[in-house]
Write a structure and sequence with these properties.
Helix content: over 70%
Distance between the termini: 69 Å
Radius of gyration: 30 Å
Number of helices: 16
Oligomer: single chain
Order of helices and strands: HHHHHHHHHHHHHHHH
Length: 321
């Protein structure tokens, strides 16, 4: 407590104001903790909500399902407190989470809740760690604390961006193979939906993510969602914008009932060529990327082994003279 008051005093430079400011922060923290606990317990242990859950469900579910439902409802109750008010930011973050593979409605709330928890841990962690360095001034402690909180704020965004990029890349690499299987299945006499379900099963060993997305298309079509809408939702979930032209052709063929085997074959060849070109591009970059580890790691060791003994002998000769 004295340490925090000292930090505040270094900013306001008034001991009385520092104490009152500390008491105000302590009051706000206690109030926030009380409100959070009240929201949590009211959703977990409210008898009225428990009774409504029992009435709404025909059969009693296992305990883990009930706990999961309660957790989801708790996330829904705190959504307005942790998510931003900007609709555009929420949409962009939700889309990024979908590209990373998190499609549940509660994913957005969980993401921002994790960010808030990380910021709180960074705040108290940096204050605790700086206690072991008494030589640091109060200004430096505040700077390091702000930096730690900034890193904790942007770290989840960086991780989700990397996960989304890796998943989109994996889907791009696996899609030409799925398209080849779809061509074979369609030409074998299966309807488009049946061929799509068969491809989803067969491609599971190569790309479970793509298999899940294709199965999701079939499930949505079976519950009554039109095929064009289901395919457009597939593009939106996966982030494969280059499939938009293929989706339009497939939707048109499904409406007219025409054969799409030749069109799918051409698109499969095009995607296969793109994949090969991407691999060749990455291979061409290897030479440039190898310069940095060569210069920093390999060449110094090589010169130390090859030229080092000669330099030592020359120095010994000059020292002997």
């Amino acid at each position: 407590m004295d340490y925090i008051i000292t930090l505040i005093n270094s900013i306001v430079e008034n001991e009385t104001y520092s104490k009152w400011l500390f008491l105000g922060l302590a009051f706000l923290s206690a109030a926030a903790l009380t409100i959070s606990a009240e929201i949590l317990f009211s959703n977990l242990f409210n008898p009225l909500k428990k009774q409504l859950n029992i009435i709404s469900s025909n059969n009693k579910r296992p305990n883990d399902d009930e706990a999961k439902q309660q957790f989801d409802k708790t996330l829904e109750s705190i959504e307005k407190y942790v998510t931003p008010h900007s609709i555009k930011e929420k949409h962009n973050t939700r889309q990024l989470l979908m590209h990373a593979g998190y499609e549940k409605e509660s994913a957005l709330t969980s993401f921002y809740a994790i960010k808030i928890i990380l910021v709180i841990f960074a705040l108290f962690g940096s204050l605790i760690v700086t206690r072991f360095f008494p030589e640091l001034s109060s200004q430096k402690v505040i700077i390091y604390t702000v930096i730690a909180m900034g890193v904790a704020t942007f770290l989840p965004n960086f991780v989700i961006n990397r996960m989304a990029e890796n998943r989109i890349k994996a889907l791009k690499n696996a899609f030409p193979d799925a398209l080849d299987l779809l061509v074979v299945s369609s030409e074998a006499g299966l309807g488009f939906l049946a061929a799509l379900n068969r491809v989803a099963v067969e491609i599971n060993s190569v790309s479970p993510s793509l298999s899940h997305e294709l199965q999701l298309i079939g499930q949505k079509v079976r519950v009554g969602i039109p095929m064009p809408i289901a395919l457009n939702q597939f593009v939106e979930r996966t982030g494969l914008i280059e499939l938009q032209g293929l989706i339009s052709i497939i939707s048109q063929s499904v409406k007219l009932g025409s054969s799409m085997g030749e069109t799918l074959r051409e698109y499969a060849e095009e995607f296969r060529d793109r994949r090969m070109q991407k691999a060749e591009e990455e291979a061409a970059k290897i030479g440039t990327k190898m310069i940095f580890p060569l210069v920093t790691c390999i060449w110094p060791g090589f010169f130390a082994v090859a030229v080092g003994p000669a330099i030592i002998k020359v120095l010994d000769m000059f020292a002997g003279k």
